[in-house]
Amino acid sequence: MKTVIKYIMFYQFIPIFLLFSLTISMSYAAPGGVVGNPCNHFNNCSKFKTNGQSNQGQCSNACENQASSGNYWAAIYEAAGNSALAALFKAKKVCELVEYATYWDCGLKATYAINPACGNSEGACNSGTPGNVTEVAGYYNWNCTGLNELEQETTVACSIEIPPTPVNGSCGSSNNQNLYSAPTTNLCSSGTASSSGAWTWTCSGSDGGSNEACSANKKQDAICGTPSSGRNAPNTGLCFLGGANPSTPVDNGSHQWAWGCQGINGGNSVNCTTDIVNDGVCEPTEDGQTLTSTPTILCSAGTANPNPPNGSGPWDWVCEGINGGSNDSCSANLIPIVNGACGDDDSATLNSTPTKLCNSGSESSISETTIAWSWTCSGSNGGTTDACLAYKVINGACGTSHNGNYDNPPTNNLCSSGISTTVTENSNNDGWVWSCESANGTPVDCVANKNMGGVCGSSDRNTSGYNGPFSHQSEVTDLCSIGTEGSSFHADGNTGWEWTCTEDNSTSCYADKGNPGVCGISDRDTSGYIGPFSDQSEVTDLCSVGTEGSSFVVDGSDGWEWTCTEDDTTSCYAEKISPGVCGSSHNVPTDVIPSSDLCGAGSTASTVTLGSDDWTWTWTCTDDTATTCSAEHIKGRKKWEQD
User: 27: closest CA among 37, 18, 16, 17?
Assistant: First the structure.
């Protein structure tokens, strides 16, 4: 049966008469794959079975007769459009045709025939069950398994070429860029570019991959427009290409309206201008005014011509318009300038108040001092002011410094009237002379006496050849070179000596006292003494004043000596540290506590104690530092040895 079915499946185009002859002994399925016993549809056959078993009932004659007429199955296949099978059922007894079908108790058992058929994709079946999918040499191979009317498996082999991997289209680096010209490169990073316009394109995928739409922006440089020049800022035609910024042009100070045009999609921007039409306008503070000098501002708008105006007044000029603006004619008149000038009494010497004050200008009130009168003559219309002065008639007169006695040249009260000349020393060097003069009177000569003071001798510290300082008062001998030594010679504390030298006047003199060296804090008698010292190298701060002497020596075993020299020399001393010295009882075994010869000379003994081991007597001997001393306790040792 399987052979017949496979034969029909693979050779379904064999002529109908051959098909008819090959299917005589095979059962046929009704449309939908249902195999049915036509007898079961026309009577109640009992216990009908197949395969010619003799102990089973066969179809009744009536059933056979009815089925053989072909009324049932022929009608079904005719309705299904299969005239060949309809004719087959009309020609043969159905019971013969379905001898291999299985039924029971006249109840219909359905058997579904599934003819396997390959699908159009990997592992797919149009009918049947797919299985055994493999890849061999670029092909997918698999099986589609079905069932025949007897529920027996039928298999068909399937194969399809393995399709290539899909590639999605993807835009290249030119996508979304601002470019001056339509891009021709870097259109796609994957896929094929298919242009749909100068600035748009599609990157098409392959082998079923997706597509991606791409585009680039046209980059354009701005181009200025050509708006008309005018008195007001233009608001149209500012840019031939690009956007205006600012949207309303501004005056750039050079008689131009200025604005910018911005590029498109990143294109270059450009600055634009057009002329401002300005009418000439005369400056109102000068035009038509009467002025004291040549006008300088001339125009509040436009260009002055000529500039400056010609002549010394009156003046005429024109304020010319700019960039086609109208002109304005201007003029101004001159106001005469009057400068103030002092009158005939200026610089005169008068016995009374001046009256001839000004030759021109306005006179001020008169101010008076002890020697002169002063006033001013003020000009008009911008004219200058002149300062005037007239002198009083005053004779020179000496002041109270005349005939006085002074150590130094007098500087005050030289003249009671007039002006003093410079005070100078007379030819005898014993006085001073000067004059009191007046430009409008008689001068007078004045004198003063010079006090002759004592002069300190060479012992004075401010004298040339000073031979101090002095360590002792008896060394201060050359006290006065002029004058008499005063009786008040005395010591000024610890720093020096004072005295006076008197001629006409007394002069104070002073001599410094020699300063002794001062020991540093290493000296034992110094405040803050840091000794005693264990070693000579520790004696470092030797002098606080003066220089350390070269006689630094060890003074036996007790310390060190040195000197500090400034004006005088001072001796200094530092003590050496003395440790305590154990006495003759040290290290001498004894049964009783030591009580004598504990320490050497200069050392002080502490209390003797017995150690916890009952074996050793201990004590200290202290001088500058302490030294530990000990002696063996004989009984304690013996006791320890017995234990």
Answer: 37
Residue-level length of the chain: 643
Secondary structure letter of residue 380 according to DSSP: B
pLDDT in tens, 87-137: 655 554 344 444 333 333 333 333 446 788 898 888 889 888 898 888 888
411: Cβ–Cβ under 8 A, 6 or more apart, which residues?
A: 423
Q: Report residue 437: phi and psi, to 5°.
A: -115, 160
464-503 exposure pattern, b = at least 16 Cβ within 10 A, e = fewer: eebbbbbeeeeebeebbeebebbeeeeeeeeebbebbbee
Residue 258, CB-side half-sphere exposure with 13 Å CA sphere: 8
Between the CA of residue 528 and those of 195, 355, 519, 532, 578, what are the distances in Å? 106, 89, 12, 12, 20
Q: Are 421 and 435 in contact (CB under 8 A)?
A: yes
Rounded distance between C-alpha atoms, residue 463 and residue 467, angstroms: 9
Which residues are 420's β-sheet partners? 436
Contact 114, 36 (CB under 8 A): no
First to last CA, the chain: 126
Structure tokens at 124: 């797919």
For residue range 251-299, list pLDDT tens digits in order: 888 889 999 999 999 999 999 999 999 899 999 999 999 888 899 999 9
Which tokens in the block code for residue 415?
Answer: 């003249």
- Tens-place pLDDT, residues 374-402: 999 999 888 899 999 998 888 889 999 99
Q: How far apart are CA 43 and CA 106, in angstroms?
A: 9
Total Cβ atoms within 10 A of residue 441: 19
Q: pTM of the predicted model, to two decimals?
A: 0.32
